[in-house]
Design a protein that fits this description.
single chain, 277 residues, alpha/beta, Rossmann fold, eight-stranded mixed beta sheet, four-stranded antiparallel beta sheet, 12 strands, globular, polyamine biosynthesis, SAM-dependent_MTases_sf, Spermine synthase
């Protein structure tokens, strides 16, 4: 999910679905005829270029993709679990850049799954989409299965508490391979209390954690997306190369790791199931 206001320049396609809580639409990007945006109640959720799956419109998605790209040999097939599907932007990108990658997508909203299935290009057979709850799905996965787990799970524009706790992070660590990578998309606003607590939560489980965000967010100047990366093996995150890559993005990002992440998360405490009631 992308943090931000409702989209104002969208050209609707004949694709609108309703459920109990929201209206879902897929609209054409007037600035890019092959671009399609998934909206929920007018708010951007996902963006797909139907002519080029490698095109990533949102900066937070490019940051997640950069972390994946740098953590494994170029072109090598990966096993990936996506928690939260949306328009399946990252599964499409991974299938295009790393053909043969076995991917499983868990999406809770059947309206999203059906709309995307009807209105956007089909996925290769290596990508399996299933309806379900993210936490329950992870608990059912075998240990040591995935190279990458990506969590982009939101309900009513908020991260569900059951995927924000140490206990859930421990389950993700269990299903990752020892050199695997866990990536989370967060939305937050100053003073980034949620992000700080999530850093502490991941650090309670994983050997190595870093944060990628717009420098303006870290200075308390804006609301937006933060990407967290974590791995069971110390030193597995290519921090220097990742920092170089995201700094060169059209929307420059910065990486916090080690001492700078210590300072950012000072005083924050891990979230547990008990805290969430």
């Amino acid at each position: 999910m992308r943090a931000g206001a409702a989209r104002g320049r969208a050209v609707p396609c004949p694709a609108v679905d309703h459920d109990d809580t929201e209206t879902l639409e897929i609209v054409v990007d007037p600035a890019r005829p092959s671009g399609r945006t998934l909206l929920a109640d007018g708010v951007e959720q996902s963006y797909v270029d139907v002519a080029d799956a490698r095109y990533l419109h949102f900066e937070y998605v490019r940051r997640i993709a950069a972390a994946i790209d740098l953590a494994a040999p170029r072109g090598a097939a990966l096993t990936a679990l996506h928690l939260g599907g949306g328009a399946l932007t990252l599964p499409r990108w991974l299938a295009s850049t790393r053909p043969g990658s076995a991917q499983r997508v868990i999406e809770r909203d059947p309206g999203v799954v059906e709309l995307v299935r009807r209105k956007l290009p089909r996925l290769p057979p290596e990508v399996v989409v299933a309806l379900g709850d993210a936490r329950e799905a992870v608990a059912e996965e075998p240990s040591g299965t995935y190279d990458v787990v990506v969590a982009d799970v939101y309900r009513a524009a908020r991260m569900p508490p059951q995927v924000a706790a140490v206990e859930f992070a421990a389950q993700v660590a269990r299903v990752l391979r020892p050199d695997g990578l866990y990536l989370i998309n967060l939305t937050d606003l100053p003073p980034l209390a949620h992000t700080r607590s999530q850093v502490a939560t991941l650090r309670a489980v994983f050997a190595d954690v870093c944060l990628v965000a717009d420098r303006r967010m870290l200075r308390g100047r804006r609301y937006g997306n933060v990407v967290l990366a974590a791995t069971p093996t110390a030193g597995r995150i290519p921090v220097i190369r990742l920092a170089t890559r995201v700094a060169a993005d059209p929307v420059p990002g910065t990486v916090l790791h080690g001492a700078t992440l210590d300072a950012f998360a000072a005083g924050a405490h891990p979230v547990t199931d008990a805290d969430l009631g």
